[in-house]
């Protein structure tokens, strides 16, 4: 029986949120033995699952945006450990392959906010 696309979407959202919680907890508790990750607070802002739940794109942002490239490198270096932790804590048929990328949404929001506060735009809005 074929599921409706909306049901699959809800399922991928739910599993993505579970993966986000597991990764956040593992990083917060310091379970990853990595100097870079131990010295930085990392926020897992979103996890987008593929429809088959085999791939997860993990959006992360280090606190204050410090050392973003170093944090991403450390996460990518420790991907196997993090995948095992997610697989162990979430009962899925397959362990999702994790892909870590920087979350640019905060930067985009700040840029839009700065544009809206620009004198020329503020004048036009009034």
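Q: What amino acid sequence fits the structure above?
A:
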């Amino acid at each position: 029986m074929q599921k409706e696309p909306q049901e699959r979407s809800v399922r991928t959202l739910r599993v993505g949120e579970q993966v986000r919680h597991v990764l956040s907890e593992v990083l917060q508790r310091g379970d990853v033995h990595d100097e870079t990750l131990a010295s930085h607070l990392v926020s897992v802002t979103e996890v987008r699952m593929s429809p088959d739940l085999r791939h997860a794109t993990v959006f992360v942002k280090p606190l204050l945006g410090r050392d973003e490239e170093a944090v991403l490198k450390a996460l990518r270096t420790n991907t196997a450990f993090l995948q095992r932790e997610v697989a162990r804590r979430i009962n899925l048929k397959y362990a999702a392959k994790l892909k870590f990328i920087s979350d640019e949404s905060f930067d985009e929001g700040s840029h839009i906010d700065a544009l809206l506060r620009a004198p020329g735009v503020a004048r036009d809005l009034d």
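Q: And what stands out in the fold?
A: Helices lie at 5-29, 35-38, 68-77, 79-89, 105-117, 119-125.
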